[in-house]
From TrEMBL:
Main localization of the protein described in the UniProt heading: cytoplasm
Name assigned to this protein: Sulfur carrier protein FdhD
Organism whose genome encodes this protein: Streptomyces phaeofaciens
Example GO BP: Mo-molybdopterin cofactor biosynthetic process
Tree of life domain: Bacteria
Gene3D superfamilies: 3.10.20.10, Cytidine Deaminase, domain 2 (3.40.140.10)
Family statement drawn from the similarity comment of this UniProt entry: Belongs to the FdhD family.
A UniProt-annotated Pfam family: FdhD-NarQ
InterPro entries: Cytidine_deaminase-like, FdhD
Any one Gene Ontology cellular component term annotated for this protein: cytoplasm
Subcellular localization, as worded in the UniProt entry: Cytoplasm
Annotated catalytic residues: 115
Amino acid sequence: MGRVTERRKVLRIRDGVVSTRPDTLVAEEPMEIRLNGKPLAITMRTPGDDFALAAGFLVSEGVLAERSDLQNIVYCAGAMTDGSNTYNVVDVRTAPGVTIPDITLERNVYTTSSCGLCGKASLDAVRTTARWPISDTPPVRVSPELLASLPDRLRAAQRVFDRTGGLHAAALFTEEGELLDVREDVGRHNAVDKLVGRALQNGDLPLSRVILLVSGRASFELAQKAVMAGIPLLAAVSAPSSLAVDLAAETGLTLVGFLRGGSMNVYAGEDRIALRTAAARG
């Protein structure tokens, strides 16, 4: 919609020199997701790829799993009282016969750009049953050298970040290191949802032979989104949370954190990391 960035006047101070200049900021606007006409969630996001964002969110909630589950997604006309369209409200219509999990219809979820789904009633409510158990997928093995090369490739693909410095990014790579897709958003969880939603729309789920790389930390929610999409390996340039590690260990997800330069920590699923024959140091 052309609202990814906005311009604002700023007072700039550099080495004691004061000037005024326009600055480019990443846009952040609320988006309401409706499911079959009923309000479901509000997320703070960077406008763009809104339909993919909504679809990916519903994959992580266990509502959608295949392209055939989705009937259509539309912006809601008349979202304002004067009948105008804000392009900040989308309605996802599921195909006839799609079963809607009870947890999605009985709560209005507010998600922020920093923490994703906040205030979940309990850990059990978040651990949605995965459609594609990662342990059942064909083995994927990648070398530490290949993983180490991915952050620079992700950074090079962040077009809006170069202009604003204020966006998270998520990318999908093949096990050979080929970049498949990259999305940016003010919320790291939104960037992942946009990737997963586009995969759903293209009929590419489950993503059983790809690597998911995120530009920030690896939260429990990002690990959950990877598991729900059938992704076997999640790598982050920053730290994972303890719950993310627990979930990875339970589901068979390979979780890599602090992926910087040639260094990384493997917190779970080390069998997918193709180490050299020399024994790893304790």
